[in-house]
């Protein structure tokens, strides 16, 4: 295959990437066993792995192989995991062709932590957390207090302190 | 177009090995004395020469303050990290905290980052390869332990660049070893690579399927190696000396350096004989100024008793790897031993007991990693257009989980451990304060639910959020690990589309600009050498 044929072929797969199910992408039947899926993944890797094109002069071609292979890995990951495979079949029946992490976790979105800036405060905070886990509420309270003295109004420290104060 | 040779370099904690592929055959490159493994030691000589290798290693005893060894234990880590603090207590050379929490070595009044130290070693072995091939060497694959984190990989890549090398790939040592073992043999087998080196222990389980090498799982400890066994023997000698002479050697830098060197020699001797008789002369001076010697006998059994728990620790890590890879020890077809410490009979017996099979004996544990790296370097350099080109593919995994800090001091995993790379995962988060305009995404590596128990990697800021009540603004955070094992983090405000996309500036590493400056500085310096031609040999007796 020459460069232009190769590029045409990968460009087509790349363009249609979102249309493929994982089964279609890996070229396996929906009832395939894990061993069959592994075999198919290995065949795909030999022809698609970005390392096979590492010195190809065309960056766009390299990028397309990378994107496609990344999706192949995603399919392999999902189909090889018992639980995720079941979830994927469910997603497929809803017409979705991918199982992405943000859908998979059903728990509500979490809030982004605001960093504790003061290193000393961080130390006390860590000590407090450890004490809390041991069930040593007194030590936890004390260390949260020290942490707050150094970093007043920090939402996380405040929240934890209120929680242990309620217990203690 | 003439083909420039490319090399594979195993940049070890204790030793470095370089190999090249020529005429489809990988060869380990010797120095002019015929030595194939080169101590990873850099010594700054009083006359300004930078020494690397065997000669430098000898200077650990006569010039411990200016002779740097085991730098790999410090590379890409925060100076403040506990294991680094632990190591520096034992190291005779000076380590201080530099920019971005990097450990910096001070020798003869000059400061060197750890990648600069490693770069001296790389420059030296590259020169050996240039002598050997008669051609310029510009590109290399450099290996690292499988469970090196993002910062350690970055810093190793920086070392390559400072040495003026184009780093084709940072490759995992066990994967390289597997490639050397299986390349061109067309076999289907499940293999374990058991690597017990000087500073690190690694275990990796792979499925080989003709030209495909898939890593099923990997686990390791970057602070478990032959050095730890040396320390045990050294402590034992300090105790004996204290009992025999009432002199405590622990505060005697020169004495300790000598004991460590003797300890390593004894350990190696005991790999091939049942006991060692040890005499170390003039190790210290007594009250009247008379010289004090140390003499004792050590048996293999006594050594085994001292080191048993260290070796046992390696098998706990094997358990972890087997579990992760969903395999049992009895399903393993072949065991490949890598690393100098696997020459210890106790280690070989342990491996045999654990896997129930004899390890391969036809593979050189010192050279196999460099050979695999050279094969991969050649494959990458030869890749190009044809999907049907010969050569193998290595399918590697993420060694550790990657996550970020969330409210409550917790860490939320975004990318799980042991995932095929490349991999991309994202998650939606919300703000934690009313009218919060900036979010700080703190990235960490490790499996703990508590952020502080993981290794902090660095942080990313997303600014200019819409003022709103806490929890209202949604931010999508995306992590991606590419085929080089390099992490990219991006954050998008889902409402405005405002995005931040960045390589996280990993704690303990240098900026691009600083790396270029260090490369320029080394280009100006005379090349490191392995001999000081006119040096008189000082009388040191050991053993
Ligand atoms: N015959 C021997 N018996 C016991 N130990 C040995 C022997 N030969 C070498 N060693 C030990 O092996 C270690 C060095 O191994 P090796 O060269 O594989 O490590 P490395 O690759 O530099 O380190 P790492 O892989 O941990 O970064 C040292 O601790 C050395 O003392
Ligand atoms: Mg090694």
Description of the structure:
- The complex is a heterodimer of chains A (168) and B (543).
- Chain A has two domains: 91 residues, Orthogonal Bundle (Helix Hairpins); 56 residues.
- In chain A, 68% of the residues lie in helices and 1% in strands.
- Chain A contains nine helices and one strand; from the N terminus they run ααααααβααα.
- In chain A, helix 1 packs across helix 4, helix 4 crosses helix 5 and helix 7 packs antiparallel against helix 8.
- In chain B, helix 3 crosses helix 4 and helix 6 runs antiparallel to helix 8.
- Chain B is of the alpha+beta class and 543 residues long.
- Chain B contains eleven helices and 27 strands.
- The chains are: A mainly alpha (168), B alpha+beta (543).
- At the A-B interface, helix 3, helix 4, strand 1, helix 7 and helix 9 of A face helix 10, strand 19, strand 20, strand 21 and strand 22 of B.
- The structure holds adenosine-5'-triphosphate and magnesium ion.
- The site of adenosine-5'-triphosphate has 23 residues of chain B, from helix 6 and helix 7.
**Helix count, DSSP H or I runs of 4 or more residues of chain A:** 9
Mean pLDDT of chain A: 87
Major β-sheet profile of chain A: none
- Which small-molecule species are bound to the chains here? adenosine-5'-triphosphate, magnesium ion
Q: What structural category arises from helix and sheet content of chain A? A: mainly alpha
Secondary-structure element string of chain A: HHHHHHEHHH
Question: What does this entry show, briefly?
Answer:
Chain A has 168 residues and is mostly helical. Chain A is 68% helix and 1% strand. In chain A, α1 (3-15) crosses α4 (59-80), α3 packs antiparallel against α4 (59-80) and α4 crosses α5.
